[in-house]
Design a protein that fits this description.
Two copies of one chain form a homodimer.
Chain A: H1 3-15, H2 21-30, H3 32-40, H4 51-58, H5 61-70, E1 73-76, E2 106-109, E3 120-124, H6 131-146, E4 150-153, H7 159-169, E5 174-178, H8 191-200, E6 202-205, H9 215-228, E7 231-234, H10 242-252, E8 256-259, H11 267-277, E9 281-282, H12 286-293, H13 316-324, H14 333-340, H15 344-356, E10 360-363, E11 366-369, H16 371-374
Parallel strand pairs in A: 3-4, 3-7, 4-5, 5-6, 7-8, 8-9
Antiparallel strand pairs in A: 1-2, 2-6, 10-11
Helix pairs in contact in A: 1-3, 1-5, 2-3, 6-7, 6-12, 9-10, 13-14, 13-15, 14-15
Chain lengths: 375, 375
Amino acid sequence: MSDAERLARVALCRLSEPGDPRMIGLVRDLGAEMVLEHLANERDLGGVLNDVAQRVRGLNPTRDLEWAAKAGARFVIPSDAEWPTQLGDLRHVEKLQERGGEPLGLWVKGKARLNTLAPAIAMVGSRSSTSYGGHVAQEIAATVARKGICVVSGAAVGIDADAHLGALAAGGVTAAVLACGVDRAYPVAHAGLLDYIAEEGAVISEAAPGTQAARIRFLARNRLIAGLGRGTVVVEAALRSGALNTSNWTERLGRALMAVPGPVTSAPSQGSHQLIRSGATLVTNGEEVLELVGRPGEHLTVEPRAPARPRDSLSSRDQQVLDAVPKTSASGADSIARVAGINLLHVQSALGRLHDKGLVQSSDGGWMLTERALS
Amino acid sequence: MSDAERLARVALCRLSEPGDPRMIGLVRDLGAEMVLEHLANERDLGGVLNDVAQRVRGLNPTRDLEWAAKAGARFVIPSDAEWPTQLGDLRHVEKLQERGGEPLGLWVKGKARLNTLAPAIAMVGSRSSTSYGGHVAQEIAATVARKGICVVSGAAVGIDADAHLGALAAGGVTAAVLACGVDRAYPVAHAGLLDYIAEEGAVISEAAPGTQAARIRFLARNRLIAGLGRGTVVVEAALRSGALNTSNWTERLGRALMAVPGPVTSAPSQGSHQLIRSGATLVTNGEEVLELVGRPGEHLTVEPRAPARPRDSLSSRDQQVLDAVPKTSASGADSIARVAGINLLHVQSALGRLHDKGLVQSSDGGWMLTERALS
């Protein structure tokens, strides 16, 4: 695309709401320059200068780009080598709450090139998270970040912040997608965190610099979080949570949806449990996340297993005899045979095998368990 | 079946281990009387009276039944009207750890007839349960018991005891299946609980009176817990837990397997999470259990939903305008239009609609949110 196309996209970005599928559709069909021209030439009806036309004439995309460059930000469009191509899937997904489509462009602050943010994992969750949820979010983020996978989230308080921090603490890369301009800190308390994210990764927004965060912009933003990740992990989500909106986008995109369970008595886990009940995969740690979103065979989870015990290798009959051997005072083979309900001859040969394995000892003319059998 | 058949089954029950598939297979093919006769006539090889033959001659099933009657126990066999026919499915299920099959008979203490224990739900879990797990087990047991469903468990410490207690506290019916004889209390501390269960439900065992609990008998017992329930709920289960053995039986029987999640940081929930990951249904309360095991349409779960808010019914554009209206100090329609990024005329008509719904108020010549909009 030409520089004129880039400037036109900067202008349209400022003119329209993030993720407005009508604007995105027009640009796809006509190109940004022509759409802008149409809007600028809107006829002045009834002598009152039309609102849109007025606003188009007030735009100055060149100044926007210059200002952004000074503030360390850039505007990336789909024809750039840096474009995160995984967002292209958004073109084929139906809109949700009047939002959808591949963005016209992305404002970016940060050293990471957007095309290097793949593979990425989206992690989202409740703003009213518990210390349990925060702990698990940090653990999972750190584990996947250590494997060179970028952690994408929304820089909100709660689970979002923990996901970013977990990735940063592990020396990994993380990206924050905002509902406001990249020059703004939302929430204000996260100004420092956002600077840190920009230093190590990227702060991204579809909204022009200066734009305030608003509910509908969060909805548009959530689709980008889902669209950047190979899968989404929901850590804690109440029944009415933005995380469920991101989950919805993840499913629409056909990407892996994962959720971390918690106590059924904890409100912030209710949404996670509902997601698992409707098909999301339950995950308990970062390895299980990697297993699900890695390339085939790339990450193989080791199923947690209890340590093997000496008795595990015994035949069921020998186990039965072992169970009948007393712990504290020795007992004769005949008495053991009665308790076990097994023929005396079989008991005697079983006791021999158990003795060889160090599980029973003979004393006072009888048999009892060894320390090893009790371990 | 004749009385002779019943007496023969009493004898074979005492002679063989609970759930020994070889004995159960012989009885199915030849009948109990003939199996007993064969065993009694085993040839005395080498002059030493064979162990089994010797034990057969020492049996006195008539005395066993008399003794049991005095102790308030009875012996129920598959031809009795009282037989819990749902155990018949065990005939068609492959053995597990050398145990399997429909029992030869069941020793029962308690006022409930076994055939009235259906529909039933099995509830199992860790002996090392947490107070969280115990609380949830009691809640679920109480909820299903209130609907007239019997709660079946194993009377162990931990989740088992909580399941029985939850059902009893709700005035419901519960059944305990033991690995020892019904005349014994295992664990000893649960003697009172077992008496209480017998008063309101049933204490059941495949093992003859006097039999001690042993590991292999727990494995045989677990198949009966799974076999009596329409489904099994696992509340907390560590990675090495008898509850996972019961789960295995439940799956073999093609019955519903459910598990309650917990914190991923809690060892007693690890087994539950693994079960959910391999296909068990996550459940968070008794209603969800009823939904899964009820007859079609019998119990319909109401999905938990957050309460509706006034803004939910708005169009996305009106929501967008609402988001741009300030909370504390009034602001003009033109300023709201700029923040919202929407044409002034549209904003004015939206403000009218929002005012009708009581979401915005005009003051000082501007607009701000009402209390209702903030709720």
